[in-house]
Design brief:
- By secondary structure, the chain is an alpha+beta fold.
- It has a domain of 79 residues: Rieske [2Fe-2S] iron-sulphur domain (Rieske Iron-sulfur Protein), CATH 2.102.10.10.
- Helix content is 22%, strand content 30%.
- The protein contains nine helices and 26 strands.
- The strands form four sheets. Strands 3, 4, 5, 6, 11, 12, 13, 14, 15 and 16 form a ten-stranded mixed sheet that branches.
- Helix 3 packs across helix 5.
- The longest helix has 25 residues.
């Protein structure tokens, strides 16, 4: 494997100052406990505290450094080719509710940024879906434009897309936007705290239970008792149904390159044909950069993630005049069979347990819409979008499995310094990492969620679960679930 250039994180997480909220080390009693400090959790928490509830938000790591902070952060109602699909499958009424909810999410973000002077590089951009010069897929773009217009969106077909290579035109959504998601998250956290909310970092929820009509959320060092509990954790880990069988964990690699203003494309872009590519620009203190995303792949099913980054870099340099590779990273989302999120209260029995997952890679507006929905439900209202996002709706089991994955065959001697692999020793599988100095460290390779064997991500240096998408650091610590426990340490194999 050729060495990877660039820092192994997103430009958003790599460039913002660390937050310093306390760790929960006590027992609290509040009206609402929110688990997860991404865009869903912070939106829900802020709206709940504004409605007069006492709210505690628990973040397992730091604000802005999880899934939202590793996204491309397109604030857009252009979600691939979804609107003709929704009109054909769930009907015009529900498709309209989906549009209205995402537009509400869009407006909430813009209003919150403006009213609180959050410095997060908000920029208006048009969003494009482009096709190749053979114009394959033009019919689908035209059908999507027709559906979008019928639903009240600003969309049209253009012959030219502002990219530095030949295309066959595309679908354009005007008046969309982009921003720095980590800065926005930090800004939301500040607004939430000023409004009276309490926020705790490095306070991972490890259990949720109910007693005497109230919920108890347990962390490693404290606990919160609450009337309402919101799981804004990318994938829920408590309650029914089991969303690990109703969603598919999907990952993509991303890379950011320095680019001059003269060479930068003006817009946000996603391809309709071939290997799906997504593009946008962003700013840091040193200037402009171009972000490119690879096609999705099933989390933990790729045994050479670094290869995907090399392929992405090759494609970018073929199509753009870019400079240094600055950043490269992997992000994960959960897809649903019907392309609609699961968000809201888990049952009709007033259980007051809420979830949000399955944003199909469009989590900025969808996640905000989910947060607004849950806050409304906590306040006792039943917004119409709840019927579309209903987490208890009849849904098909995704049916994903890790059984077909080619098993890694390795030995300690074959592992290069700075690399990892799965090593079998007797009837046990170990996740083995060799440091740059040659020290061998071993963990149990069994994911602590359901026992699946993890795989080594050689780009991010993480252990990724191919069954349900849990991700662990190379030291075995949970980065995000559904797992709530770290991988067990083991003696290195002989």
């Amino acid at each position: 494997m050729h060495a990877l250039d660039g820092r192994p994180e997103s430009p958003w997480t790599g460039n913002h100052p660390s937050t310093s909220y306390p760790q929960l080390q006590e027992k609290l009693s509040v009206d609402v406990a929110v688990i997860g400090g991404g865009i869903v959790g912070l939106t829900t928490a802020l709206e709940a505290v504004r409605s007069g509830s006492s709210v505690a938000l628990l973040e397992g790591r730091q604000i802005g450094r999880q899934v939202t902070g590793r996204s491309t952060a397109k604030i857009t109602t252009q979600h691939g080719l979804i609107y003709r699909y929704l009109m054909d499958t769930v009907g015009r009424e529900k498709a309209q509710l989906y549009v209205d909810a995402n537009q509400d999410g869009f407006r909430f973000i813009e209003t919150t940024i403006a009213s609180n002077n959050i410095q997060c590089c908000l920029e208006e951009r048009s969003a494009f879906v482009w096709i190749g010069v053979d114009r394959e897929g033009l019919y689908e773009l035209e059908a999507e434009a027709e559906a979008a217009l019928e639903l009240g969106l600003e969309a049209d077909i253009v012959d030219r897309v502002p990219l530095p290579f030949a295309t066959g035109g595309g679908l354009r959504f005007t008046r969309q936007a982009q921003f720095n998601p980590a800065q926005y998250m930090i800004g939301l956290a500040n607004v939430f705290e000023r409004a009276g909310g309490r926020l705790f970092e490095y306070s991972r929820a490890v259990g949720v239970s109910k007693s005497d009509g109230r919920w108890r959320v347990k962390t490693d060092s404290g606990a919160v008792t609450a009337d309402h509990v919101v799981q804004a954790t990318n994938i829920p880990f408590a309650g029914e149904p089991d969303f690990t069988v109703l969603t598919n964990p999907r990952s993509h690699v991303a890379a950011a390159f320095r680019i001059s203003a003269e060479r930068a494309p003006n817009g946000m872009f996603v391809s309709r044909n071939g290997p799906c590519r997504s593009l946008r620009t962003g700013w840091d203190e040193d200037g402009l950069f171009l972000i490119a995303l690879s096609p999705k792949f099933d989390t933990g099913h790729e045994l050479d993630v670094a290869r995907r980054i090399h392929e992405l870099e090759h494609w970018v340099r073929e199509h753009f005049e870019v400079g240094k590779l600055l950043w490269r990273w992997t992000n994960e989302d959960y897809d649903t069979q019907d392309r609609l999120p699961f968000a809201g209260e888990l049952s009709g029995q007033n259980d007051r347990l809420y979830v949000a997952t399955g944003f199909n890679a469009w989590g900025i507006t969808n996640g905000t819409a989910a947060g607004l929905l849950i806050a409304e439900q906590i306040a006792g209202r039943r917004p119409a979008i709840g019927s579309v996002f209903d987490p208890c709706r009849k849904a098909q089991d995704i049916g994903h499995t890790a059984s077909h994955i080619r098993k890694e065959q390795s030995s300690v001697a074959a592992i290069q310094a700075g690399d990892g692999a799965i090593v079998s020793t007797g009837d046990k599988k170990l996740a083995v990492y060799k440091t740059e100095s040659g020290i061998v460290r071993a963990l149990s390779a069994a994911c602590t969620h359901a026992g699946c064997t993890v795989t080594w991500n050689n780009a991010d240096k993480t252990w990724d679960c191919p069954c349900h998408g849990s991700i662990f650091s190379l030291e075995g610590r949970v980065i995000h679930g559904p797992a709530t426990k770290d991988l067990d340490e083991c003696a290195p194999p002989a």
